[in-house]
Automatic annotation (TrEMBL):
<keyword id="KW-0012">Acyltransferase</keyword>
<dbReference type="GO" id="GO:0016747">
    <property type="term" value="F:acyltransferase activity, transferring groups other than amino-acyl groups"/>
</dbReference>
<protein>
    <submittedName>
        <fullName>Stilbene synthase 4</fullName>
    </submittedName>
</protein>
<dbReference type="InterPro" id="IPR012328">
    <property type="entry name" value="Chalcone/stilbene_synt_C"/>
</dbReference>
<feature type="domain" description="Chalcone/stilbene synthase C-terminal">
    <location>
        <begin position="249"/>
        <end position="387"/>
    </location>
</feature>
<dbReference type="InterPro" id="IPR016039">
    <property type="entry name" value="Thiolase-like"/>
</dbReference>
<feature type="compositionally biased region" description="Low complexity">
    <location>
        <begin position="1"/>
        <end position="17"/>
    </location>
</feature>
<feature type="active site" description="Acyl-thioester intermediate">
    <location>
        <position position="175"/>
    </location>
</feature>
<dbReference type="Pfam" id="PF02797">
    <property type="entry name" value="Chal_sti_synt_C"/>
</dbReference>
<feature type="domain" description="Chalcone/stilbene synthase N-terminal">
    <location>
        <begin position="20"/>
        <end position="239"/>
    </location>
</feature>
<dbReference type="Pfam" id="PF00195">
    <property type="entry name" value="Chal_sti_synt_N"/>
</dbReference>
<feature type="region of interest" description="Disordered">
    <location>
        <begin position="1"/>
        <end position="24"/>
    </location>
</feature>
<dbReference type="GO" id="GO:0030639">
    <property type="term" value="P:polyketide biosynthetic process"/>
</dbReference>
<comment type="similarity">
    <text>Belongs to the thiolase-like superfamily. Chalcone/stilbene synthases family.</text>
</comment>
<dbReference type="InterPro" id="IPR001099">
    <property type="entry name" value="Chalcone/stilbene_synt_N"/>
</dbReference>
<dbReference type="InterPro" id="IPR011141">
    <property type="entry name" value="Polyketide_synthase_type-III"/>
</dbReference>
<keyword id="KW-0808">Transferase</keyword>
């Protein structure tokens, strides 16, 4: 684990060059630690088409050709999934069209989501370096679990958290759930002095797995793009010197919805599981609205414009990233953390933004990057935009020379 005290002293326990630390703003929430977890089954994109059509016993050559094209355009190389040949052998109805398997799917998903959430939380708490008993609040995010009491309670019990831990559950938010959770965690941390919030996201595609069907072409997009996993972060204000090492301060958070787009992304719970619909105009709608949203989120904080910021963007897909890059005029490599997360994990719904954030932290620890201010963004059903304006608390000599961003009065 690496970090630095408030005076900027460098700490390096990992053997790599580590950037020094900017002084955090009193009372402002920051991400203090991060952990992630995945199921055991690794899916290689190059093997997906034959495996998927074989497992579902589908012989539709046209659908197969479409999926082959999609697998190339998504840029995904590897993903992790709960669904496996062993699971399909044990429960063959999961791969049959029209099978009323929602009860079975929920039993599998609820357990898998909790298991991954537990592993991610333990990894995050180890990264944090303080006892789990010091967690005061839990924010639990999932679009893959439906039950009560929810995973927030089961997770708190597994981790041995105090019985008076404050719990908030955010269900069925889709891909913007991770940043929505950050917004909630930020509010809790900044309004409860000394609090430490464990934000956990966990997702699986088990609820939506079904055989190819010409009447549901968007199912192929899901098959080519989505993966499973979990993530966790600890959020708190006023890091304890020499004990906690925040790396991303959450300066301001905002949420928008785009009127008239309620049906562009939607999911319906049926006897077969969750049926998703992804409109082809989703990337276009995001591109049309991203500049206005970012300008509202920035509100005059920086002078250099969008390309002078760092970008932690949920990689909903390459078309979405390309649209964001084009509309904001971002330079080559500005969305590399997002593209790398998409390549390595696929779109893992609410979790994915934290995998992007982890790549950001990794580069900053090695002395890369250097941008002081930046954006954490995600997009989901609604269409909903979620964003946090962030201050990177790690810096290096390069950042001192090229970052001259000025603070808006709301940060003082």
């Amino acid at each position: 684990m690496s970090g630095a005290n408030s005076n900027g002293t460098t700490h390096n326990n990992g053997g790599n060059h580590v950037s020094t630390k900017r002084t955090s703003t009193p009372g402002k929430a920051a991400v203090l630690a991060l952990g992630k977890a995945f199921p055991d089954n690794l899916l290689l994109q190059e093997q997906l088409v034959e495996g998927y059509f074989g497992d579902t016993k589908c012989e539709d050559a046209t659908m197969k050709e479409k999926l082959e094209r999609l697998c190339k355009t998504t840029t995904v190389k590897t993903r992790y999934t709960v669904m496996s040949k062993e699971l399909l052998t044990k429960y063959p109805d999961l791969a049959k069209e029209g099978s009323p398997t929602i009860k079975l799917r929920l039993e599998i998903a609820n357990q898998a989501v909790l298991d991954m959430a537990t592993k991610a939380s333990l990894a995050c708490i180890a990264d944090w370096g303080r006892p789990a008993a010091h967690i005061t609040h839990v924010v639990y995010v999932s679009s893959s679990e439906i039950r009560f009491p929810g995973g927030d309670l089961h997770l708190s019990a597994r981790l041995g958290l105090n019985k008076n831990v404050g719990r908030v559950t955010l269900y069925l938010l889709g891909c913007h759930g991770g940043v929505a959770g950050l917004r909630v965690a930020k509010d809790i941390a900044e309004n409860n002095k000394g609090s430490r919030v464990l934000l956990v996201t966990s997702e699986t595609t088990v609820l939506g797995y079904r055989p190819p069907n010409p009447s549901r072409p968007y199912d192929l997009v899901g098959a080519a793009l989505f993966g499973d996993g979990a993530a966790a972060v600890v959020v708190g204000a006023d890091p304890i010197e020499e004990t906690e090492f925040g790396f991303l301060e959450l300066s301001h958070a905002e949420q928008w919805f785009v009127p008239g787009t309620e049906e562009v992304v939607e999911g319906r719970l049926t006897e077969e599981g969750i049926c998703f619909r992804l409109g082809r105009d989703l990337p276009e709608k995001i591109e049309e609205n991203i500049e206005g949203f970012c300008r509202s989120l920035m509100e005059g904080v920086v002078e250099e414009g969008f390309d002078g910021l760092f970008w932690v963007v949920h990689p909903g897909g390459p078309a979405i990233l390309n649209g964001v890059e084009r509309r904001l005029g971002l330079g080559l490599g500005k969305l590399e953390w997002s593209r790398r997360a998409l390549r390595d994990y696929g779109n893992v719904s609410s979790n994915t933004v934290f995998y992007v954030m982890d790549y950001m932290r990794e580069e900053m620890r090695k002395g890369g990057g250097g941008e002081e201010w930046g954006m954490v963004l995600a997009f989901g059903p609604g269409i909903t935009f979620e964003g946090c304006e962030g201050l990177c608390l790690m810096k290096n000599a390069v950042s001192e020379l090229r970052c001259g961003h000025k603070k808006h009065s709301r940060h003082m």
